[in-house]
Amino acid sequence: MDKNNDDIEIDDIIQALRRMATETGSLNCLGCGHEHNCSLRGCAVLMEAAEKLEQLNTFDRTHSYTMLKRINTLETENELLRGALASCGQGGSIS
């Protein structure tokens, strides 16, 4: 999706879901099948959606960078090992 002025930031969506969750009793609430899990915090479905979105957003910011850094390290190590094998007469291939 292209980023433009009409896009809503994930943090804004999370906040909106949490605000909407406390407005229970609408037609959407009738018979959703999860109404028994609603509490003082509001609609269980909206609260869970906000939690999951926040987890994905947090994962993206923190863990993706760490994982990409680790992949780059492994790729560098792989190239070094291939070079060492090539210099030993193995031609850089592992049999």
Largest sheet: none
Share of helix among residues?
55-70%
List the total number of helices.
2
Number of strands: 0
Distance between the termini: 44 Å
Order of helices and strands: HH
Taking all residues together, what is the mean pLDDT? 78
Our Rg estimate from Cα atoms comes to 24 Å
Poorly predicted regions are: none
Strand % is under 5%
Helix-and-strand structural type: mainly alpha
Please state the overall shape, judged from the principal axes of the Cα atoms: rod-shaped
Task: Describe this entry's structure for a reader.
This protein has 95 residues and is mainly alpha-helical. 59% of the residues lie in helices and 0% in strands. It has 2 helices and no strands. The two termini are 44 Å apart. The mean pLDDT is 78.
Question: How is this fold's topology laid out?
Answer:
Layout (H helix, E strand, L loop, with lengths): L9 H12 L22 H44 L8
In short:
This protein is mainly alpha-helical.
Task: State the main characteristics.
95 residues; mainly alpha; 2 helices; 59% helix
